[in-house]
Amino acid sequence: MPKMKTHRGLAKRIKVTGTGRLRRRSPNLSHILEKKTPQRKRRLSGESDIAKADEKSIRTRLGK
Fold first, then answer.
1. Nearest to 29 by CA among 54, 48, 7, 16
2. Cα 49 to Cα 27: distance, rounded to the nearest angstrom
3. How far apart are the first and last CA of the chain?
4. Are the C-beta atoms of 37 and 55 separated by less than 8 Å?
5. CATH number for the domain whose boundaries are 8-62
């Protein structure tokens, strides 16, 4: 059976940290920012962890 290919779209969006945690950027911060409050934009600016329920399937797609 051939090797499984990495899901390239997912690989561009998710980063594996040095300790092995999965991190992603928050959505909704690329455009239409004028109507969003500064508090909401600050909250969206950081990175967040991936949910535990999704972690196994994401790691499979990333080949990790």
1. 48
2. 13
3. 18
4. no
5. 4.10.410.60
Residues in the chain: 64
Mean pLDDT of the chain, nearest integer: 95
Q: Domain-by-domain residue ranges, the chain?
A: 8-62
- Average pLDDT (10-37) is 96
Vertex 21: Cα angle to 43 and 56 (nearest 5)? 110
Answer whether 23's CB lies under 8 Å from 15's CB: yes
DSSP 8-state assignment for residue 26? -
Angle at 9 between CA 30 and CA 56, to 5 degrees: 110
Sole residue written with tokens 């949910």:
51
